[in-house]
Design goal:
212 residues; alpha+beta; Glutamine Phosphoribosylpyrophosphate, subunit 1, domain 1; 5-stranded antiparallel beta sheet; 6 helices; 40% helix; disordered N terminus
């Protein structure tokens, strides 16, 4: 168990991802740097993945484990829709991932910390650790830069933020983490999820909202 805990500690050390609700949806933001120890392995990593029409997840941890879980949950979502003949809720998606992670946690654990967010009947954010523990939040952060990011969000978050206010707060939180956490950097990706679907913002759109 000590070796697993040590591996987990190393795995989560290398990113900053955040999620927060606003009046009509959810904002996800993440840095772009991938590290291996103290080595910057890649500078344009996508840490936010669309998994359904109105759902996405952020990645913190081992990339291979996260990629596997993305593929598996997409397949499970498709199967659920075909068999139940109804839309899948965000909680159902998060619960599917939770069950998968928990099933392997005592033997060959997925070394990941995930945020699953989206819009079903309202904005939803769920956080999963490497044991499959599932909690619903109004805002959250994961990765090595999360202590810095979450403090920024907590200082300014309020219910019913508008879309641009939420985007600005999410980007500000990740940027603050990048200034103090050497494992986070290379810019910020932003995804907005509403009842209309998953929208990935361009660098120009982010700049127009956030400013310099």
């Amino acid at each position: 168990m000590f070796k697993q805990e040590e591996a987990y500690s190393k795995a989560i050390h290398g990113t900053t991802t955040v999620a927060l609700k606003f009046a009509n949806g959810v904002v996800l933001a993440a840095d772009k740097r991938a590290t291996t120890g103290y080595y910057v392995a890649h500078k344009k990593v996508r840490k936010i993945a669309k998994i359904d029409e109105r759902a996405a997840m952020t990645i913190s941890g081992l990339v291979a484990d996260a990629q596997t879980l993305i593929d598996v949950v997409k397949a499970e979502i498709s199967y659920y829709k075909l068999s139940s003949k109804k839309p899948v809720t965000i909680k159902t998606i998060a619960s599917i991932l939770s069950n998968i992670i928990f099933a392997y946690s005592r033997v060959l654990p997925y070394i990941v910390q995930l945020i699953v967010a989206g819009y079903d009947f309202q904005p939803r954010i769920y956080v999963l650790d490497w044991f499959g523990t599932l909690t619903e939040e109004d805002y959250t952060a994961t990765g090595s830069g999360s202590p810095i990011a979450i403090s920024v969000i907590e200082s300014s978050f309020r219910e019913k933020l508008d879309r641009n206010e939420a985007i600005k707060l999410a980007v500000t939180a990740v940027n603050a983490a990048m200034k103090r956490d050497t494992a986070s950097g290379e810019g910020v990706d932003v995804v907005v999820i509403t009842e209309n679907g998953v929208e990935e913002l361009s660098s120009e759109e982010i700049l127009n909202i956030v400013g310099t």
